[in-house]
Amino acid sequence: MTAVVDTATDLPRPTTGTPRWAARIDAARIFTHVALLFLVALWTFPTAGLLISSLRDKDQLAVSGWWTALSTSSTQGVTRLPQAGAQIEAGGKFVIRGNVFGEDTNKTLAQFGLSNAEPAAAAAGESLPMTDGGALTVQRDGAYEWVSDTRFTHTRGPRVFYVAEIAPRFTLDNYVEVLTANGVFRSFINSFTVTIPATIIPILMAAFAAYALAWMRFPFRGLIVAVVVGLLVVPLQMSLIPLLKMYNGIAQAFGAEDGKTYLSIWLAHTAFGLPLAIYLLRNYMAGLPKEIMESARIDGASHFKIFTGMVLPLSFPALASFSIFQFLWVWNDLLVAMVFLGAQESKLVLTGKLVSLLGSRGNNWEILTAGAFVTIVVPLIVFFSLQRYFVRGLLAGSVK
Fold first, then answer.
1. Rounded CA gap, 265 and 341, in Å?
2. Any stretches that span the bilayer, and where are they (predicted)?
3. How far apart are CA 268 and CA 286, in angstroms?
């Protein structure tokens, strides 16, 4: 141990060999950063898996998880050999040729057999005797030869079971299938047609209402605020059918066939988004400096002038925060769009179109991975454009 002079007391103080930077390390701070990194990784992990799956070959995607994307996967299959009419005569023997994989060239045959109980009875390149005569040989590339000394007479080709290996393969075929599907561009435009007005309208209405609840004095103001907060817990599903019936009744009163129009879904999303918008903006506006409002009133400014000239510019972080929420909700919505627009091809939104691409039995489910990334491109652009206002607006009015 050595001693150094303390300049404040002129007395020697003991020191150890611990560096100054080590003394500044805060264990709690390290734990916080590690926990934050863990949470970020936990949320990013599924997204990374979705991205890898969207780039995999659909045959691999059907038989193995994304974590095996860099390893060879194994799958079983079955094919039926041709009838006797496909035989040719070569060198005094009768031969039937073909490929068990058909046009699929991304597989390599490992074993094959003649029954479901023994799909790996023989290795690639070996031969198996056939009950209809002759022997069958299947190579690793799937090419087979069924050779017999006598003419084939069977009317129904036997089945061949096989075990195939699929090498790792990444492709953009899933994205091409989604983007080139008939009607996708139209549904993309429909999503914008629904989302942009359904984001702007509630913001404008909520901004006026929030200013009135924050700075104007009128009877039952506290009760109205309580009702707005209570509406935050009302399930959306409870009001869908009553709203649709009301819109249909209004539409029929004006001579229209039904209420499934863009106006109806704009108003529906506005109604569902207003409680949170009013609550968020009211809290933010109530926290603005009171002195600014009083000075403006002394100068003779009206409520409308104060609102448009002072409150709105100062409330931009809260407006941007709610815009992100509302845009994401409406863009990713399927339920409200199907209820208020139906399955009309001319008005089908992007989420509805992707569901229709799956087929009636979901046999094209592999395009969901690519479709998911197609749908999040626009929300990501909106989020990163306004992210600096997101936290500020989200926490607005939470503390005084």
1. 7
2. 30-52, 194-216, 223-244, 264-285, 306-331, 367-386
3. 28
Q: How far is CA 27 from the centre of its chain?
A: 37
Q: What are the boundaries of each domain within the chain?
A: 2-54, 73-167, 175-394
Calculate mean pLDDT across residues 299-311.
86
User: Confidence band (pLDDT; 50, 70, 90) for 394?
Assistant: low
Instruction: Calculate the dihedral angle through the C-alpha atoms of 94, 100, 102, 106, rounding to the nearest 10 degrees.
Output: -140
Residue 239 has pLDDT above 50, yes or no: yes
Residue 29 vs residues 20, 34, 56: alpha-carbon distances, Å: 17, 9, 40
- Of 367, 2, 359, 378, nearest to 171 by C-alpha is 367
Q: For residue 12, what are its two tokens?
A: 């020697």
SS3 179: helix
Residue 192: CB atoms within 10 Å: 13
- Contact, 349 vs 186, CB < 8 A? no
Give pLDDT, residue 392: 60
Hey, which residues does 137 pair with through a beta bridge? 127, 145
Question: Residue 224: is it exposed, middle or buried by C-beta count within 10 angstroms (0-12/13-18/19+)?
Answer: middle
Q: What is the pLDDT of residues 162-183, one digit of tens each?
A: 999 888 888 888 888 888 887 8
Where do the DSSP E strands lie in 157-316? 159-166
Mean pLDDT, rounded, of the chain: 83
User: Which option is the CATH number for 175-394: 3.30.70.980, 1.10.3720.10, 3.30.1240.10, 3.80.30.20?
Assistant: 1.10.3720.10
> Could you tell me the pTM of the whole model?
0.69
For 378, list phi and psi in degrees, rounded to 5.
-65, -45
**Alpha carbon distances (Å) from 238 to 213, 231, 234, 244, 329:** 27, 12, 8, 11, 18
Q: List C-alpha distances in Å: 265 to 108, 165, 186, 255, 270.
A: 52, 49, 18, 19, 8
Cβ atoms of 73 and 165 closer than 8 Å: yes
Going 19 to 21 to 26 to 32, the CA torsion angle's sign is: negative
How far the first Cα of the chain sits from its last, in Å, is 51
Distance in angstroms (rounded) separating the CA atoms of residues 357 and 182: 9
Strand partners, 62: none
> Residue 3 pairs with which residues in a beta bridge?
14
How many CB atoms are located within 10 Å of the residue 11 CB? 9
